# Entry
Amino acid sequence: MLQFLKELPKVELHAHLNGSLGMDSLCELAERLYGSASEEFSQLCARFTRFDKDSDLDACFEKFAFVHELTSTEEGLRYATELVVREFARDNVQYVELRTTPKANKSYTRREYLQHVIDAIGEARKTYPDILVKLLPSINRAEPVAVAEETVSLALEFAQSHPDLILGIDLSGNPGKGTFSDFVPILSLAREKGLKLVLHCAEIENPAEIKEMLNFGMSRCGHGTFLTPEDIELLKSRNIPIECCLTSNVKSGTVHSLEEHHLKRLMEADAPKVICTDDSGVFDTTLTQEFLLAKQTFGLTRDQCVSLTLEAVQHSFATVEERQSMATKVKNYMDSLQK
Ligand SMILES: [Zn+2]
# Structure
């Protein structure tokens, strides 16, 4: 089954750029930025060792801080983006929608941040032509609304110049911070102007906000951990899929164990759903691994894994032609196994 899942041409719809760098890539990035003989590199390696032994939540947060450090320059950001595409390509992901919050620091503005990421995706596609990459700029709900307005304005501008790459806006960040209603005007504007919306929703128990988000609407629901059966029925009636990230939810503590993951309830309700990694590097997983966990925990069969992949194809923001081509790749893979 592992081999089958590894070779399946998979589709990843919920992946944050900065969280998707695995240990090997992080080491490679640090080596490239600092040189293997430098003092900085030795110190970084000492910190890496801790992650191998210890993957508690603190270690995960430290990994995030680490990635932000390494991507705080143009070179770091560009190379990290290329490495993330490589990570997914190596796991035989044929399509990935990457999300990232444009950041500003002394090396780049938010506009330059997005430009660097776009350029790096272009470069990576030359090296890994078998993977199709799309980009969803993220609004961090913990930041002021003014920053969200800048992000949407940049997303709209870049969507004009790169209509095949920038397709939507993500709302993410610490779900305990910020107020959803504050972002409604700018999210509405983004939607009116043609951007799709993916919202991290029901990550924590907050019934009032969950209702507000569901009323507002979205193209896909990130996590959906605390959705009620009625909420799930509502999403089902609107054909809005829930992006399930098993390892991420368990490691970050919003779900106590794999067995208790809401993927089970979504399967029982026959609600639209997709399996995703969220932050494969930080949580030390891959899309193959997530399917394998779903199989081991909930007894997913090969056919169900294929159906989930085809479901992800349909819920992706790719064009009709791109979706057809993705489905064909899955079909050809299945046909090749019959021979
Ligand atoms: Zn996420």
Summary: The chain is about 55% helix and 15% strand. Residues 14, 16, 172, 200, 222, 278 surround zinc ion (CB under 6 Å). The mean pLDDT is 94.
